[in-house]
Write a structure and sequence with these properties.
Elements: H1 2-22, E1 28-33, E2 42-50, H2 59-83, E3 86-94, E4 97-106, E5 115-122, E6 126-134, H3 135-146, E7 150-156
Antiparallel strand pairs: 1-7, 2-6, 3-4, 5-6
Organism: Alteromonas aestuariivivens
Pfam families: LPP20
Signal peptide: 1-20
Length: 157
């Protein structure tokens, strides 16, 4: 009885191997093509920073820090437009009365290809940076790294 089980197991193994070997007999050629969007939007963002609130020792240092802060704020706004914004909320209720309400937002992403359009001070206390992100440029950068494809045709031999 034991030899019958061994022979059955051996036959099943051989038949499984022979079936999997048949799948290699069919060969195919796949043609790929690139996917390109119909239109490319241009995104704009504006970042603001107070000059007097910066931690520099001189007016010049505070101005430079405000320039950097306004640029980062503009990049944050671009990231929100491209990737969206994550919102976390929490609400505490006791005796059917709202006790505490909290909202927290965050954004995370990589922005490549943005250009500084304009950077300037408004009055003596606010610095502004305007950015532009041409999605055509972003797509070109993406093509150089990811090389996206889709199946154009499949030929079996």
């Amino acid at each position: 009885m034991r030899s019958y089980t061994v022979i059955t197991t051996l036959l099943l193994g051989v038949s499984a191997l022979s079936l999997s070997a048949c799948s290699h007999l069919v060969d195919k050629h796949v043609e790929w093509e690139r996917i390109e969007p119909q239109t490319y939007p241009v995104l704009n963002a504006v970042g603001y920073a107070p000059i007097a609130s910066q931690r520099g020792q001189t007016d010049g240092q505070r101005m430079l820090l405000a320039m950097k802060a306004s640029k980062l704020d503009a990049y944050r706004e671009l990231a929100e437009q491209v990737y969206g914004q994550r919102i976390d909320g929490e609400l505490s209720v006791a005796n059917l009365v709202v006790e505490d309400a909290r909202l927290q937002s965050s954004v995370q992403g990589v922005i490549r290809g943005a250009e500084v359009v304009k950077t300037y001070a408004i009055g003596e206390d606010t610095y502004v940076t305007e950015l532009k992100l041409d999605m055509q440029k972003v797509y070109d950068i993406y093509l150089t790294t990811a090389k996206p494809k889709r199946i154009k045709a499949v030929k079996y031999y």
